[in-house]
Write a structure and sequence with these properties.
Chains A, B: Keywords: Oxidoreductase. Chains A, B: InterPro entries: ADH-like_C, ADH_N_2, ER, GroES-like_sf, MDR_fam, NAD(P)-bd_dom_sf. Chains A, B: It comes from Hymenobacter telluris. Chains A, B: This is NADP-dependent oxidoreductase. Two copies of one chain form a homodimer. Chain A is of the alpha/beta class and about 325 residues long. Chain A has two domains: about 150 residues, Medium-chain alcohol dehydrogenases, catalytic domain (Quinone Oxidoreductase, Chain A, domain 1), CATH 3.90.180.10; about 150 residues, NAD(P)-binding Rossmann-like Domain (Rossmann fold), CATH 3.40.50. Helices cover about 25% and strands about 30% of the residues of chain A. Chain A has nine helices and 16 strands. In chain A, strands 3, 4, 5, 6, 7, 15 and 16 form a seven-stranded mixed beta sheet that branches. In chain A, strands 10-9-8-11-12-14 form a six-stranded parallel beta sheet, with helices on both faces. In chain A, strand 9, helix 4 and strand 10 form a beta-alpha-beta unit. Chains A and B meet through strand 12, strand 13, helix 7 and strand 14 of A and strand 12, strand 13, helix 7 and strand 14 of B.
């Protein structure tokens, strides 16, 4: 049996292009005892994967050139040699970008596919949801009446951060890159949303949206938006440093105003994190997110691209701001 | 009765000079019920006071032009209208730079002058000691065997940070601005000390001194030393952001490499703070510092200037790196 696979053809310099990807047909080995054959249903494309395409050591090991790209996948068990996962089970795991994968049953996690659309386990009820959950609730700890700013607010993580902050009674301001996204954030319940691409003075727009200053900042983006936030922090502000998508494709070390003086005079806490820092608390996070989703307090939003051959395009679209909410590719 | 007083004559642009200070003779009012007349014995000069000389809002209110400069003072009660403070008591408080002050007894704190030299209540057993104590032990929380870097290590706070880190079993590296300071840090028990003024490549020197990477950074200085530290942080590093003396006299907003990407990929926590954030825990801190001092585990080091008229010069000397340990002025 054969499968299509997508390999890393070369490492990008700056913004990745279609040249970085190569499609190949490979043979799928027969599953042995304890293994399952998985048919891919949804593939997750995520900004953090850009980091793995470079050779530099980061918080996740680099992809190897010539090897399949590995990421979040929702799949269905189509052949099973494990009591744990009967045929028909829906699972999520970190797997090669292939139409079919053979893996140990214990390397993937079954998801309750009756409780939510399967793709949500790559978004609202998966890694991005947990990222929002721990970053906002553990690091920022917003209190009712406080002001929370989220950059990249219409992205997979940002849109959940904003909804979680509203559940906790905060005033929520999001930044995003199009009028459509801004409109969607308002629909989701954000108090204010700023189109950073069309707003001439971000600092002024933030000051108008956050007249009482900023208590919490969930940063997915970095750069000029972050600089403007630093100037408007309240005493004892908390910053969850989750991503820096504005710098991921930079070819030179980014330079900007030094933030330390601003963080010092406001006694601000800034905490860098990756969701795996909270691995031991994932069950708590999934349980709480699932509960809020069931109660209608959290909405998922996805940009779904169709077709295995469209995976690279969907990934490249992340850096053009093409997605609102979680970007996933529907494969089967 | 008259006293000399030192007023803020004008706000500095960049590095302050003697022109910013004006000496005047003023009348001292007679103390009334509940008040004491204090004779100044030691005046504290501290880098944070530079911030108060500017009009910009910071974590402490600006000094007013034409009004006396206010700072840490150790004084003796020479006339008392309060049962709380008999004549001869030694007190510490935030008071105008004057030879004599009249104040409410409850506005100052009596110190146990039999337990340590009186000036130590402005240093090791006072505000700088508490700054080191809470910043290192509450924010950085060094573990035995971890590596701690302290910038401005020979300053009033830095030298205590290093000693506290050694008490906790850490490997300690300090940066300072002269060979004499470096030699003194070694005497104090620092494992390594780097003269940042004569070392051509700070990053290389740090890497040699910290072969296992940096777990904790206590930053008094900012700028290039801090940039080099950010590049060598271990996963889950902790940074106590205490001061930025390298930037206090800057006339333009300082610019440098953006740190966020480095803090993100190491899941580093950076916490700005001022000692007053820990006001409710000062008794704990003073008790512990006094105990370690009595046990011979902590040494004070001071640069003592003599004479009330030398206060401005001692203050200006902070920005030329003239002091090793706490800079104080002996007045009487």
């Amino acid at each position: 049996m054969n499968t299509q696979t997508i390999l890393l053809a070369s490492r990008p310099q700056g913004t990745p292009t279609a040249e970085q990807f190569r499609f190949e047909t490979r043979e799928v080995p027969a599953p042995t005892a304890g293994q399952v054959l998985l048919k891919t249903r949804y593939v997750s494309v995520d900004p953090y994967m850009r980091g793995r395409m470079s050779a530099a050591k980061s918080y996740v090991a680099p992809f190897e050139v010539g090897a399949p790209i590995v990421g979040g996948i929702v799949a269905e068990v189509v052949e099973s040699h494990s009591d744990k996962l009967p045929v028909g089970s829906v699972v999520v795991g970190s797997l090669p970008w292939q139409e079919y994968n053979v893996t140990d049953a214990q390397a993937v996690n079954q998801v309750p596919a009756d409780k939510a659309p399967a793709s949500y386990f790559l978004g609202l009820l998966g890694m991005p949801g947990l990222t929002a959950y721990f970053g906002l609730l553990d690091i920022c700890q917003p209190k009712a009446g406080e002001t929370v700013v989220v950059s990249g607010a219409a992205g997979a993580v940002g849109m959940i951060v904003g909804q979680l902050a509203k559940i906790h009674g905060a005033r929520v301001i999001g930044t995003a890159g199009s009028d459509e996204k801004v409109a969607y954030l308002k629909e989701l319940g954000f108090d204010e949303a700023i189109n950073y691409k069309t707003t001439p003075d971000i600092a002024k727009a933030l000051a108008a949206a956050a007249p009482n200053g900023i208590d919490c900042y969930f940063d997915n983006v970095g750069g000029a938006i972050t600089d403007a936030v630093y100037d408007q922090l309240n005493k004892h502000a908390r910053i969850a440093l989750c991503g820096q998508i504005s710098t991921y494709n930079a070819t030179e070390a980014p330079v900007g105003p030094r933030p330390e003086g601003k963080l010092l005079k406001t006694s601000t806490k800034l905490q860098g994190f990756i969701v795996s820092d909270y691995l031991d608390r994932w069950p708590e996070g999934v349980k709480q997110l699932t509960e809020w989703y069931a109660q209608g307090k959290l909405k998922g939003e996805e940009t779904v691209t169709e077709g295995f051959d469209q995976i690279p395009a969907a990934f490249l679209g992340l850096f053009k701001g093409e997605n609102t909410g979680k970007a996933v590719v529907k494969v089967a």
